[in-house]
Design brief:
By secondary structure, this protein is of the alpha+beta class. It is built from three helices and four strands. It binds zinc ion (ZN).
Length: 134
């Protein structure tokens, strides 16, 4: 996938491997400029930045999630403004190519937080009831 960070062209290659233990690993390899391919069409450019995302057995593996998380790791040490440009380019490219993409990780929603708070409250009340009863 061709990504732009300002006027710098970055190529992102994603590979998905299914490991013996059942976990899926997505590898993101990034290099600057055009690709150089071998006879089999594989890119031979040296990739200075890589990121991998491992999907635990508990989670459902999806390629969009693998791409997002592995790309996030590959660009982790870049300055924030650069990362912002890359993400914008990534979402734009995904849209153009009809690839599903998931938004960047966001914390729990307000609704989830409210449910958690309620559960904690219920547990506390139940505990107090039990203590009072004994
Ligand atoms: Zn390449």
């Amino acid at each position: 996938m061709r990504l732009m960070a300002g006027d710098v062209v970055l190529m992102a290659h994603f590979a998905y491997t299914h490991h013996e233990n059942g976990a899926w690993v997505t590898l993101c390899r990034l290099h600057e400029g055009k690709c150089n391919s071998d006879a089999l069409g594989r890119c031979t450019e040296y990739c200075a930045r890589t990121g991998s995302a491992r999907c635990s057995n508990k989670d459902v593996f999806t390629k969009p999630l693998g791409r997002r998380d592995s790309l996030a790791r590959a660009i982790k040490f870049m300055p924030r403004p650069t990362r912002k440009l890359i993400w914008a380019s990534y979402f734009n490219q995904s849209l153009k190519r009809g690839l599903k993409c998931v938004p960047k990780h966001v914390g729990p929603t307000q609704e989830q937080l409210a449910i958690e708070a309620l559960k904690t409250l219920i547990r506390t009340v139940v505990r107090e009831e039990v203590q009072r009863g004994s």
